[in-house]
């Protein structure tokens, strides 16, 4: 009984709380940028919604991942970028406005796209043992715990702007603490699976993380976007909302074993994020040095 209360009520409520906090940081101008500067947003959107699940599928097939690990990786790839990507974009001095816009748009659209990716993954990898969950139930679940709280948060921000700006930081902190608790819970509950499959899961997560960042960089080059936008796309496509992935696995699908990938990814993605921040810092220093030498 306690377990069902946690998975069916408390965990979805916590994610809804986090999504509400994301809504408090958004304004309608974040969406208007789609029309003002469409190229980087469309490029990032296609990379996140289409290229990332295809990359995950390629990794699953190439590595011959076990059913829980393969489905877990596909679910992770179906999720949007989380608030972590916005923080990393800020630290890397990337295009924060673009990062926020992509996070917002992908979080809304994933309500429609993620269920299809999840249903495909379950049908393809769970040979003869499909999960008793419908496309409609996944869509409704994501609608209630992600889209509606984001919209409500934006409405609150529009009427109580100063309060929203003041408290939004606390929602971010809650998101970090909640993610750590989720990771701990998954490790404790699925300890045996993690020990048996850690090597393959760790490598698969690294490949997804670095492969996704590469997609962002290459896409920016192909469409002649600025270095700053390319860095932002690498961050936004490369860092997924692992909290949402774990919630989908545990609460919507009732399959905690699928959440192992998201738990491991939550740790490995900071390696990629750290390298991006270090690279961005190096490039910025080089630009400053070149500018100073040119001035003299």
UniProtKB/TrEMBL annotation:
Gene3D superfamilies attached to this UniProt entry: 1.20.1530.20
Keyword match Membrane: yes
Membrane topology: Multi-pass membrane protein
Pfam families referenced in this protein's UniProt entry, alphabetically: SBF
Entry keyword Transmembrane helix: yes
Signal peptide range in chain numbering: none
Main location class: membrane
Localization of this protein: Membrane
Keywords recorded for this protein, A-Z: Membrane, Transmembrane, Transmembrane helix
TM segment ranges: 6-27, 39-64, 70-88, 100-126, 138-158, 170-189, 201-223, 230-253, 259-282
Record-linked PANTHER family: P3 PROTEIN (PTHR10361:SF24), SODIUM-BILE ACID COTRANSPORTER (PTHR10361)
Protein name: Bile acid:sodium symporter family protein
């Amino acid at each position: 009984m306690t377990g069902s209360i946690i998975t069916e009520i408390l965990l979805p409520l916590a994610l809804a709380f986090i999504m509400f906090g994301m809504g408090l940081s958004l304004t309608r101008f974040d969406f208007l940028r789609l029309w003002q500067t469409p190229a980087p947003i469309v490029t990032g959107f296609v990379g996140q919604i289409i290229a990332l699940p295809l990359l995950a599928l390629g990794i699953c097939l190439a590595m011959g991942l076990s059913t829980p690990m393969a489905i877990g990786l596909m679910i992770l790839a179906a999720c949007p970028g989380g608030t972590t990507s916005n923080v990393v974009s800020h630290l890397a001095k990337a295009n924060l406005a673009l990062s926020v816009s992509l996070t917002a748009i992908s979080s809304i659209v994933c309500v429609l796209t993620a269920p299809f990716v999840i249903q495909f993954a379950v049908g393809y990898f769970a040979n003869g043992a499909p999960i008793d969950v419908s496309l409609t139930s996944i869509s409704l679940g994501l609608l209630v715990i992600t889209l509606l709280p984001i919209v409500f948060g934006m409405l609150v921000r529009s009427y109580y702007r100063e309060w929203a700006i003041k408290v939004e930081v606390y929602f971010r902190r809650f998101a970090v603490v909640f993610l750590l608790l989720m990771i701990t819970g998954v490790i404790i509950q699925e300890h045996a699976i993690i020990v048996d499959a850690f090597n393959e899961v760790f490598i698969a997560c690294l490949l997804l993380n670095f492969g996704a960042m590469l997609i962002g960089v290459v896409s920016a080059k192909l469409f002649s976007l600025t270095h700053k936008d390319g860095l932002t796309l690498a961050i936004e496509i490369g860092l997924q909302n692992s909290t949402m992935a774990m919630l989908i696995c545990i609460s919507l699908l009732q399959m905690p074993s699928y959440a192992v990938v998201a738990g491991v990814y939550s740790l490995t993605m900071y390696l990629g994020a750290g390298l991006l921040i270090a690279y961005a810092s190096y490039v910025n220093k080089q630009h400053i040095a070149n500018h100073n030498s040119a001035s003299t």
